[in-house]
Structures are given as structure tokens and as C-alpha cells.
TrEMBL record:
This is Rod shape-determining protein MreD. It comes from Brevibacillus brevis (Bacillus brevis). The chain crosses the membrane at residues 31-51, 84-109, 140-158. It is found in: Cell membrane. GO terms for cellular component: plasma membrane. Keywords: Cell membrane, Cell shape, Membrane, Transmembrane, Transmembrane helix. Belongs to the MreD family. One of its GO terms (biological process) is regulation of cell shape.
Amino acid sequence: MARFLLTLGVVVMFVLEGTVMQVFSPGTGGLSWMIVPRFALVCCIFISMYLGRREGLYYGIAFGFLQDVLFGQLIGIYTMSMMVASYFAGMIVLLFQRGFGMVFITSFLILFGHEWLLYSLFRLFSAAPFDVQWILTHQILPSVLFNLAFGLLVYFPIKNVCNKILAKKEMHMQ
């Protein structure tokens, strides 16, 4: 049941980032910077940190593919970038303990790397006409900070559900 709730929660976050959050985007208010919500990616990063890199990889592939099919310009870009981001989040956790500060420093780095990878891939395929400085100051940094603020909201619920899944898994192992 906990795994179902976790997956359902990530699906709800994916739907929210593609529908409701588009209405509240700063670009609609005439501001020059824009925020790209990556709620599903934040959830995938936390899942990868608490349930392991393989589990995060699966979630990253699934929700990256959904992102590609529903919203993407090129098929495979979001699949690869979310998969890589989730996997690296799980790898970093192997090196350090899962403290609150480490989780958010890692999340910042992973989110920044994800946005930078997306910009680089879109620039490679000539789909991003903006220069690096503009993208960095007007899209990447505001998006990363917004998604970190969202991460503060969902950190403890995701951590609790992941701990329930791990406890159930350990109970079945004994």
C-alpha cells in the first residue's frame, strides 16, 4: 500500500507541474525570469536517496518518458536526464549519510545539473536559442530554487513513506 501511495503521489505531482503550476508561472505576470516546476523530479530524487539508485532509476525513466511524450519537443531528452539525475542522487547517498542538509545540498546540485544537462542537450540540437548567461540567471537558478522550496514541503512525507516501504521490505527478509 505504501508503494502505491508513493507512486500515486508522484503521479499527482507530475500532473500538478504540468497543469496547475503553468497558471502561476511568473512569465504569465510579465516577469523576465521563468520557473520550470520539476515536482516529479524532486520526488524521484528523494525516492532514489531513500529507496536506492535502482528504484530511483525506474521512477526517473518512467516519469521522464511521460514528460517526453506529453510535453517534450524531442523524445528521449527528459527520459535520459531524469534517469541520470535520479541515479546520481542514489549514488551520492552511498558516499554520505542522509542528513537533512546533505539531502538538500545534493538536491540542489542534482537539480542544477539536470537543468544544465537539459539546456546543453537542447542547445546541441538547436532548440535553445538563448545564451548561457540569460538561461542561467532567468531560468535555471529560479527553477532550482523554486524546486528546492517545493522539496522542503514534500521531504518529510516522502521520507516517511520510503521508511515504511523499507521497514516492510526488511520484515519480509527476516
